[in-house]
Structures
1.
Amino acid sequence: MLTIDYTNWLLVFVRVSALLAVFPLFTGPNFPMRLRAGLGALVAFLVAPTLPPISVSHLAFGTLISWLLAEVSVGVLMGFVSRILFFIVDAAGNLVASEMGLNMASMLNPFTGSQAQAPGMILYYLAAMIFLSLDLHHSLLVGFQRSYTYLPVGGAQLRETLFQDIVSRTGNLFLVALQMAAPMIAISFLITLIFSVLSRAVPQMNVFSENFAVRSLAGLVVFGLTLNLMAQHILNYARRLPEDVLTIAQLLGPG
């Protein structure tokens, strides 16, 4: 029978609660705080017995507090890395809405509690469905449990390679979003080019009103036809999340 070291439980609970506080599927106003705390307590209850016990008798109070703060920082950083997928979806949705002329048509995103355009909402729901239907949330929890192999409690250390990795991931965010929205940008450029030629050939044409209608209609068609391609981009990035969490643990670990 596994025995629980309550100091381990507390430190694991702090790390996993910080991760859940940042990860978007668990931070929405429709996800109760009590349920989030209960989920964190359950994960800590399952993970803590697998870790070596910690003796607090020789630890100063300040050391324990510093460990708690370090575990909060580690959890927030892991949650941020996991959330990059949804940052990508938001950026791609904004690009698509801009090319379709739907910037002003915003609605409430129930996951984040903020305003978002219709294409961004569709991509956000698509990312959430892919993430949950493929049980990637279970893989993320497995990656979280394995992170203690590389980053034990109280062993976090800041390194230059960690900052380089975070900057690289943030820069890659815009690249992936641009790849997802590339078909929309291409068709928007083509329509603009065609109407630029027509405005020269037929000066009396109201280019602005005609351009807006054609751009919106063509954008909806291309968006629907390329949704499968966007889903593949989301899936490719989502499958990397457990390994990304382990990478952060390795960069923060003492080894």
Note: The radius of gyration is 23 Å.
2.
Amino acid sequence: MAISLYDVTVPSYEQVITAMEGVLAKGVTFASEQSVALPDLVGARLHDDMLPLHFQVVSIAHHSLGALRGASEGGFTPPPSLDLDYEGLQGLLADARAGLAAFTPDVVNAFAGKEVIFKIGDASMPFVAEDFFLSFSLPNFYFHATTAYDILRARGVALGKRDFLGGIRLKG
């Protein structure tokens, strides 16, 4: 059986975004139980030279729904600067998950071979869609999801591997 571009993108995005929604929900519970201010979590970092939870969550949405939109349009840029509180970050993930429904297998598989140009400042990185997803956007997606998870875990939120994995896709 061949695996399609759709197979490696949309279901993986849905799985991890749903899991991250659960991770953020556990963050809310933790904050309430431990009297931690949610803005403190939004600005939390793993290390001083790393970007905060806010950026990580924005990047999860950007490297999933945003990547699909970018492939559709033939161009992708760094994520926008969004001023979101914790609830806004939760809404961003919910919106990204909902937006994935517009990307059917036929739509995503039609991206194969299409040029996608990543522009950052004056620099451009040309990709074909397959390489854009597999070597750039998916690795970034997982990096930012892992970093968001790690930030909350490091702050004391009771999280485990199952929280990160979410609903794995079993034979059925």
Note: The chain has one domain: 12-165.
